[in-house]
Amino acid sequence: MPSSDQQSIHGQWSSRWTFIMAATGAAVGLGNIWKFPYLTGIHGGSAFVLIYILCVAALGIPMMMAEVMLGRRGRQTPVNTMRALAAENNASQGWQLIGWFGTFAGMLILSYYSVIGGWTLGYILHSVSGNFSGLNGNGASTLFGDFVGNPFVQVGWHTMFMIITMYIVARGVKSGLEKAVTYLMPALFVLLLVLVGYAMTTGYFMKGLDYLFTPDFSQLTGTSIHTAMGQAFFSLSLGMGTIMIYGSYVPKSTSIAGASIAIAVFDTMVALLAGMAIFPIVFANALEPGAGPSLLFETIPVAFGNMAGGTLFGTLFFVLLLIAAWTSSISLIEPAVTLMIEKFNMTRWQAAIWIGLATWLLGFGTAFSFNIWSEATVFEMTFFENLDYLTSNLMLPLGGIFIAVFAGWLMTKDNSQDELDMKSEVGYSIWRILIRFIAPIAVSIVLLHAIGVY
Ligand code: TRP
């Protein structure tokens, strides 16, 4: 019978603060700094931002609480956690599928995440070499175009990124991760503030703020609502078991609600700061806000190329971005690796190597999507775009619906109340309404619309 007084066989966080930092490390990554700004640009700015913030508050926070709660009660890899909780609450063993589904989604996401992680590696080298100095918008576009245009370069950096990810995973997540995130996440935050400071000097800062925050509902479409919701799941790392597995290492004394809110607020602040740094640069250099995945890499080098100490700051920025990506990538693959250990009795090293190899191979599809396969489209999307759509826009929200239904309807009220252990009755009731009704219904409505049911 599960009880959170037990510990996970994989260990436990040393404190509430390390859990918050580790989960923040998983949440803050390329999703905030690379993906959020470019999606905002594609979807026309403020309306997307507003829907995104709404999704984080009304769906993201209660979903995160649900995942941490399930993880802490089950204390195992998501598949086995769901099995144990299904037994505890007299639910069908079919609920284990949530775990399998999420574990698989994590591998799919990492396969492309690693290619973009490779871009940050490549850009560290560009920065150290002084290739940003004096760069204008055109120069930055050319630099990026040449970089992604070369399939060998793409596979090379992707390989490097996979190696460093799997190395940490093989050594065990908690030993390496705790120290890294405690100092480096705050450092990244400070550097983003420096970039926002630079954006203020471009003369286009107000235009950037206006673009991000003055609501313009003419830009709102079903697609942008769907994408904003998917991005909320992606950025908070929800819907696939990452947070469940990190929750399984959480000490019993930690307040789940407080920690979830702190993580969501921090994650959202990082995304908004990235937007506030990038859009003024876009407008000042007559770049295209809807440029897509290249946006970050075509704007930020211009800022560093034209500020004092830019080579140093630029290098530091991409190093910190790399670390943010790294802590996220580890969390994407941890469920698959612990599953192999629990199910097939593998050692951590064996599990990391097998899972890493499979994910690495799949990543070639994304590495080639920006060069030799850029014209090879299915549903008018490249391999990368299909993978991203499948995971962020379909699999994560679907996983989220099932997690919400399980936490709200299948888990008994006594159990969830005991595990969340909230001081305020009202707080618990709000959570329960959000997780039982609002989250599953809202997400279903958006998904059904997206697949063309109405
Ligand atoms: N949230 C991370 C980012 O914004 C990516 C990530 C890590 C993730 N773990 C996840 C996304 C689990 C979805 C599910 O970069």
Oligomer: single chain
What is the 3D form?
globular
Assigned CATH architecture:
Orthogonal Bundle
Bound ligand species: tryptophan
Folded structure, characterized:
The protein has 454 residues and is mainly alpha-helical. It has one domain: Hydantoin permease (Orthogonal Bundle). It contains 18 helices and no strands. It has helices at residues 16-27, 30-42, 46-74, 78-88, 96-128, 137-149, 151-171, 173-200, 205-213, 222-235, 242-247, 256-284, 295-305, 310-344, 348-369, 383-410, 413-420, 425-450. Helix 5 packs across helix 7 and helix 10 (222-235) crosses helix 16. The mean pLDDT is 92. Bound molecules: tryptophan. Tryptophan binds next to helix 1, helix 2, helix 10 and helix 14.
Main features:
454 residues; 77% helix; Hydantoin permease; mainly alpha; 18 helices; binds tryptophan
